Amino acid sequence: MSKGQNHKDYSEEERLALLREYYHSGMSKASFCKHHGLCGIALLNKWLCKYGNEGKTVSLYAKPEKEDMANRSKEDYKDENALLKKRIRELEKTLEFSRLETLARDMMIDKAEEYFDI
Description:
65% of the residues lie in helices and 0% in strands. It is mainly α and 118 residues long. The protein folds into 2 domains: 7-62; 71-118. The protein is flat and about 65 Å long.
């Protein structure tokens, strides 16, 4: 594939949406780039540096719709509570997977050091 063949210009909104999705996904940079058809990790790293260094914050959630709290019903609060509890369970599961992944990497490093007598 020639350089630039898979090139796409992304608007700032698209970049921020992709970064928000990247943070939310828990995927590796390589997997995320492949999944979304980004030309490479360098592009994602560039965005991470750009939006991190300029002090711009990337929200993990889309902007919530403004709603008058006084007009919300008890059912709305129950539904929102259930969704938040589900989200917490998903995040806890993702965190546990990440911990296991880190443990597996540490074990691989230990075994490689042992094998290569480092």
